[in-house]
What we know:
About 20% of the residues lie in helices and about 25% in strands. The protein has helices at about 10-20, 25-35, 45-50, 55-60; strands at about 70-75, 80-85, 100-105, 110-120, 130, 135, 135-140, 145-150. The chain has a 6-stranded antiparallel β-sheet with strand order 1-2-3-4-8-7. Strands 5-6 form a two-stranded antiparallel sheet. The radius of gyration is 15 Å and the shape is globular.
Amino acid sequence: MPVRPRPLIATLALAAAVSSALVTAPASAAASAVKGNDWPHPDLTKAYNATVKYTSEQAALNDGYLRTDECVEDPTLGGMGYHYVKPAHIGSTDPTRPAALLYEDDHHGKRQLVAVEYIVLNTGQPRPRMFDRDFDGPAVLPGLGSHYSLHAWIFKKNPKGVFTPYNPRVTCDCPPDMAKP
């Protein structure tokens, strides 16, 4: 299975033009998914509390997150899922303002929130830091350029760690009856 391109490319290119700055489970189900999770930083609770409303995909769309229909996965590392990007939050290191929300297809035509992602453009500044952790990168994507990112798996446990970019429990595979021709 080939590595699928990160969907941020097309979304951020569109977002840059528009902004010139560059469902899902009910909340109770999302809360049970992380219940008992031993998060390594207290600000992850702030991130969770600010984004739990996005367990409704429609709430994310209503708040300006742009939906993508390309799922990101690596055949050996796992998946990230579908990115929903809010251009106004790119550059934010506020735990309550992630630049992207990551969703996984539940194979029943709905998407479930699994993680949040923070994105900071690389302008030559020191590597950004949140949650007592350095961002990953920099990486270069056409349409976005050089940037740093930090994933936080606060809605679906990642056995590789809360801040690991890919989650081996997330896939982009779709059952044959759901596959598009």
